[in-house]
Structures are given as C-alpha cells and as structure tokens.
Amino acid sequence: MSLRCALLASLLLVTSPSFAIAQTAETPAETAAKDQQAYELLETIAAGISSLRNVENRIYLGATVADLLWNKDEKRARALFGTVTSEVVSEMSALDPTDEHQQQNYGMIYQRRREVVDRMARRDPEMALAFLRATRPATESSDQLKQNEAQLELHLAGLIAGKDPTQALRIARANLRKGISYSLMHLIPQIDAKDRAAAQSLHSEIIERLKNEDLRRNYDLANSAWHLLSAYQPPQANEQTYRGLLEFIAGFILSVSATDTASVNFAQNSYHQVNSAIPYFEKYAPGRVVPLKQWLRSVQRTQDPTSQMNQELNEAVRKGTVDNILALAGKYPEHQTNIYQQAASKALSSGDPNRARQIISEMVTDPAQRRQMLEQLDNQLTWNTISQNKIAEARAMLPRVKTVEQQVQLLMSMAITVANKGDKQQALELLAEARTMLDSAPLDSGKMSARLQLAQSYSTLDSDQSVALMESMIVHLNQLVAAAAVLDGFESRYLKNGEWMRAGYTSLGNLINTFDQNLGQIARHNVAGARQVSNQIERPELRMMAQLEIAQSLLAGAGPANRNAFRRFGRIR
Q1: Whether residue 337 sits in one domain with residue 317
Q2: Residue range 519-548: average pLDDT?
Q3: pLDDT, position 23
Q4: pLDDT at site 103
C-alpha cells in the first residue's frame, strides 16, 4: 500500500464541506415563477436539439427535456421520448459491438440507454421496457454484451418493482435462467418491499440454482453466494430457506482442502468471507461454527507472511488497543510504517491526538513519510475541531495546513458551521478570507475547483457574490474548452462529430460538470444571475447543457422527492 493510500485509509483525507444551510420555504407564487422560467429554458433547448451533430448529445438532451416536460405536457414528452428511441435504434443498428474500434461508441450508447430507461421508468414502466427491447444490440456475441444487457434489464426491474413487482419478478426469472448475478441479489429486497411472497420465491429459486453450480470454478458465483447471505436475511427471508443456503455454503467450504494450488488459492480468497459470515452461522446454523473455525485456522497456516500480518493488524485495529497494534511492529519489521500509521489512527480515533503525534514523530524514521503523516494529522485535527463547532480554535490551527486548497475548504466548512448557527455575518467574513487566498494564488485546476466550491457556498449566503465568482471564471473556462478542442485526440478525446462530449471523463470535463451544477444551485436563489452566466458559454452544446442543469434545478426545488427524481446520473461501470 502506498503512503498516500494508507493516509487515505487511516487519517481520512479532507473532503468538501456540505452546503446544507436551511432556507426559507418558497411561496406558491415564487415556485410558479421559477417553474415558468424553467419551462422557457426547456423550450429553447428543445428547439435546438435537432441542430446538434453528436447523436449522444441529442439523446441525452432529448430524454432529459422529455422527462422534465412530462407533468406539463405528457403528449409532447412522449413524442420526444419517441424521437429518442428512434435515435438509439438507428445508432445501435449501425454499431458492431464486437468491433474493438467501436467499443467506446457502444459504451457511450449503453450509458445513454441506461439514463433513458431511468427517466422513462418513473413516467411509464411499460414504455421503458419497450424501449429496452427495441434498442438491444443486433447480436449478443460475447459474455460481456450479455452481461451488460442483463444488468440493464435487472436495473429496470428494480426501478419498476415498487409499482409492478409481478413484472419485476418476471424479468428476474428470465435473467436467472441465463445465470446468477449481483444485480439479482439487489433486486430481492426491492421486490420484498412490495410483495414479500414474490421476493421469497425468487430468493429460493436463486439458492436452488446456486446449489447446482461449482463455486470453486467461478469466483463471481462464489461472491454472489456470500453476498446473498447479507442481502436478504430473516425475518424478510424465509428462515428455512436461509438455513438451507448456510448449510450449502458450509458444506462446500468444508469440502475445500489444501490439496493443490487451486484449492489453496480458493481457500485463501474465501477466508475473509467465511470469517465475516461466522455470526450468521452462530445464529442460524450453530452446528457448523466449530468446523468452520477449524477450517479458518487451517487456511491461516497456508497464508504468506504479508497476508498473516494484514489479518493480525486488521484484528488488532478492530478489537485491540494502540499497544496491541504497536506490538506487531517487532513481529513484522518490514511493515513497521504501516503498523505505526494504523496505531496513530487508532490513537486519534480514541481521542488521544498527543499519542498519535508521538507515535508518528518518534517511530516513523523516514523524514518524508513522517512529514506527510504529521501534516495529515494536523489536517484531520482541524476538521475534527470544526466538527465540534470550535471555530476560533480551528482558525488558530489553520496555518498548520500546507495548501491553499485545503485552507479554503476548511474556511468554507467553518462558514457553513457558523451560518447554520445563524451567524451569517461571520460566515461571509470566513468566505471573504477564503476568496482573498484564492485571488492571490496562481490559477490552476486545483484553484479553479476551489473557486467553484466557494461559489457554491456563497450561493446560499450571497448569490450576487456567487454569480460574480462564476463570471470571473467563464472567460478562462471558454479558453480552456477552445484549447482542448485544438488538442482533441492528442492525449484525450473531448469532441465527437465536432461537438463536446458530455460524458468525457477528463479533468476538464469534470470541471465543466461542476460548473453546470453550480449554475443549477445558484439558480435556486438567483435565476437571472445563473442564466446570465450560462449565456456567456461560447459552445452551443455546452450552453444547452448548462441551461438544462438550471431548468432541472428550478423544477427540483419544489421538494425532496423532485430533487431525487432529477438527480444527475453518474458513470456506469
């Protein structure tokens, strides 16, 4: 494990603050006015979709606009969804998913299909199912393609389980005939929320299918079996069926002996799952506990020293004291830095930061590692102080933090803390201090991200300041986009058919996504300002996407249900 990864695990790298300041409820007139402005934006976007050259952008914008227009004009929304379906059908028919040169295109269309299914399913589940069937690949010639389609079907089944558990169960059974997957496990509790008998039936059918498989030859199936133990338990699960699963797994595990390399590898890979599942066996199959613990001890003897060290260290961290952890340093001298770091983390989490500092200062011999760990300790102590509402003490600790970005994050977190206590003036002073730091620092990607975070925190306290910050970045952002277009294809792909790709997973792409999300956040408090900034985005497709974010945010402002419904979709892996 690298030092940076270890620090992430034990001392918890700082994260962006949560901007959850309470807001005054909107009046019906204010909500209606925002809705009207949102629909005006949607009309503008809808009129421009056909002019776009990138089919993926047309699909994304068309489906999102259709979803947002549904409550206002269902007939038109259905027509837009119909156009989107035709676009996807046409694109899928032209793709050969087995051609490695078209794999990226297939991945993009797969992502768009999932987004469309999400939006259709909450409006009309039957329409979503018809869309999925109409847009299948012409051939499912590889296991990966089959797996992708199965995941989409089961994802849809999960979306509709609350409204139509019978249809969800039908989809699940059709996929079970093709094989077992993690997605099936996740579907069981979703069906259970509406129809327990159907969920228990599916649970039983999956277990019967598992019993006919050789888990030793298929790690995915073995992991699915372990996952099923925790995914669906009594009293939701039928207790007799659950005991049957435990007995099957125990019998299989106890049949694995270290007689050959393959068996040793499987046993070692299963060690953690067996150890974690012991409480289930103690409750529902106590007769299997003693032999399983004996099996664990026998497997432990076959493990390499590093694996043994990790297990002992994890056990000491979980159940032991700081001294228990430190005692392992003499036993495993080649892993001392990791052990000392875990001991320091344990001391910190136990409320003894002085002991944590002493361990790092006196026991970590490498100067660079010692310095990094001490810096991270100071960062975490500062965050802990803020979380305890000790703002004056936290401000005094700020000089210990080495980077401008981290200092700005800390100041923003302090601002949110005091704002939530009703001290808006002090919150604005803290944000002004953060802004002064950023203004005096050279602009780079980290500073630009920090500016976006600062603009977001200003949006709930002083939306004019938020708009001003966004406007200060728009010229630079346009320049970066223009430069990326020139460099397109040299290191990263930004464009397709001459248009910016919304799903381009690059640092600049993520920056643009954050910029758009900020505009949506600002629009809830300052619609005119958010629109004013969006109008300065030079590329038409990026401007449309930013304005769509504004419209989504305005329509989502009515309540938590809508905010969840119009969430931004993440990357499908």
Answers
A1: yes
A2: 96
A3: 57
A4: 72
500: β partners = 495
Write the DSSP symbol of residue 495.
E
Question: Residue 160: which of 135, 136, 195 has the closest Cα?
Answer: 195
Q: What is the pLDDT of residue 140?
A: 66
Same domain, 459 and 531: yes
Q: Out of 347, 365, 383, pick the residue that ends a domain.
A: 365
Residue 495 sits at φ, ψ, to 5 deg, of: -115, 155
* 346: containing domain: 304-365
- Dihedrals phi, psi of 177, to nearest 5 degrees: -65, -25
CA atoms within 13 A on the CB side of 19: 19
Q: Are residues 284 and 308 in the same domain?
A: no
Query: At residue 228, what is the residue type?
Result: L
Q: What is the residue-wise DSSP string for 376-398?
A: HHHHHHHHHHHHTT-HHHHHHHG
Percent residues over pLDDT 70 in the chain: 91
Rounded to the nearest integer, the mean pLDDT of the chain is: 87
| Pairwise pLDDT comparison (571 vs 69), residue with the higher score | 69
In a domain, 224, yes or no: yes
Domain boundary among 365, 386, 405: 365
- Residue 415 parent element (H or E): helix 404-420
Residues 232, 308, single domain; the answer is no
What is the model's pLDDT at position 547? Answer: 97
Confidence of residue 141 (pLDDT cuts 50, 70, 90): low
Tokens representing 52?
A: 């776009």
Q: Are residues 356 and 452 in the same domain?
A: no
> What burial class does residue 102 get, using C-beta atoms within 10 Å of its C-beta: 0-12 exposed, 13-18 middle, 19+ buried?
middle
Q: Are residues 484 and 546 in the same domain?
A: yes
What is the arithmetic mean of pLDDT over 210-227? 86
- Residue 224 backbone zone (phi > 0: left; psi -120 to 50: alpha; other: beta): alpha
